[in-house]
Amino acid sequence: MHPYASPTYALALSHAGRPVVVPEWGVSVLARPVPVDPIPGHEDGLEDATGIYPLTPLAAAADLFGGLERLRTLGLISVVLVPDPLAGPSLDGLSAAFDLVRPFKSHLTVDPAIGPYSPSRHHAERIRRGHRRCRIDVGPLGPWLEPWGRLYRGLIAHRGVTGMAAFPDRSFEIMASDPALTAFAALVGDRIVGMTLWFAHEGVVYNHLTAVDADGYANGASFALYDSAILHFGGQGVVNLGGGAGVGSGEGGLFAFKRGFANGEVMTSVCGAVLDSARYAALGKGVETGFFPAYRG
Q1: Domain-by-domain residue ranges, the chain?
Q2: 190 burial class (0-12, 13-18, 19+ CB within 10 angstroms)?
Q3: What is the pLDDT at residue 158?
Q4: What would the pLDDT profile of 52-86 be if each residue is shown by its tens digit?
Q5: Is the pLDDT reported for residue 248 higher than 70?
Q6: Res 28: pLDDT
Q7: Are 83 and 269 in contact (CB under 8 A)?
Q8: Do 208 and 55 touch, CB atoms closer than 8 A?
Q9: Does 122 have pLDDT greater than 50?
Q10: How far is 114 from 70, CA to CA, in rounded Å?
Q11: How large is the angle between the packed helices 221-232 and 121-133, nearest 10 degrees?
Q12: Exposed e or buried b for every residue in 194-210, given b needs 16+ CB within 10 A?
């Protein structure tokens, strides 16, 4: 099973919603309360659904219409998700089933079909510096939960991370049980100054999360960590480095950092469907925000 499709991973996201299994898609989604005043007659609250962070790996043979119907019968108002662009249904198939399919964010890749891994000259210099100053260890996350928690809490505070990506410590305890997760730690002396987490599954490797403290940045830990991970997974298929921070593509320091390792690029799409048109219209009050669902704009 794809690591992002497993019920265990969905449980790790329960801080962001209630996991709902969608057998027709081979994944779970998260049901979440709609943050608006209740509609008369529905004072017990309404829910909509969102996909798994960072990508929802819909099965290649997914019954897209059947999954939407299941969510509709559960009383959810809408669903929005970002499918894995390297697997799953075609863009035409998604467009036939969902009301909204539009470009979302570009992900950078290291694709052996394009060519060998060859970081940019700028990055190669910093990679060498990072390896001179840091020792990189690799292993399961479990033994490193304490330093990883420290680093990730620091990232949340420094970057103002909110929403699904603001993982609490309990989420990482759950993720650590998945053998598909590999952790890399950068040490200066005996102190861990940076870590990165990666999932591997059937020919695709996913850069999941990375966190580095001030000492790590000063010693080039980020460059050494990414380089070590990419080399570690060499020969296992396409490496998806992910995109930049926020919505959009091709902008920001994180995207530029990843571009220096990459030789390819793939666009993700955001897919949305209205499951209850009457309630959706009532919640949106006719205001078009350009966001989906409109009432969360």
Answers
A1: 7-104+269-296, 112-262
A2: exposed
A3: 92
A4: 999 999 998 999 999 999 999 999 999 999 999 99
A5: no
A6: 97
A7: yes
A8: no
A9: yes
A10: 40
A11: 100
A12: bbbbbbbbeebbbbbbb
Rounded Cα distance between 134 and 266, Å, is 31
Looking at residue 5, the DSSP 8-state letter turns out to be T
CATH fold for the domain made of 112-262 = Aminopeptidase (3.40.630)
Cα dihedral 65, 67, 70, 71, rounded to 10, equals: -100
pLDDT at 249 > cutoff 80: no
- Name the residue among 275, 243, 269, 272 with its Cα closest to residue 90: 269
Which pLDDT belongs to residue 39? 54
> Is there a contact between 119 and 260 (Cβ–Cβ < 8 Å)?
yes
Question: Are the beta carbons of 283 and 132 closer than 8 angstroms?
Answer: no
Assign 45 to helix, strand or coil: coil
Closest CA to 240 of 123, 54, 107, 115: 107
Which pLDDT belongs to residue 252? 60
Confidence of residue 283 (pLDDT cuts 50, 70, 90): confident
Per-residue burial over 103-136, b = 16 or more CB atoms within 10 Å of its CB, e = otherwise? ebbbbbbbbbeeeebebeeebeebbeebbebbeb
CA distance 33 to 35: 6
Say which residue the tokens 């020969």 belong to.
235
Residue 251's pLDDT is 54
Q: Which amino acid is at 46?
A: L
What percent of the chain shows pLDDT beyond 70?
94
| Nearest alpha-carbon partner for 109 in 248, 254, 256, 239 | 239
Q: Which residue has the tokens 């999932």?
A: 199
Q: Where are the beta strands (DSSP E) in the chain?
A: 18-22, 27-33, 47-50, 78-81, 100-110, 135-139, 181-188, 191-201, 204-212, 238-242, 264-274
Cβ atoms of residues 29 and 50 within 8 Å: yes
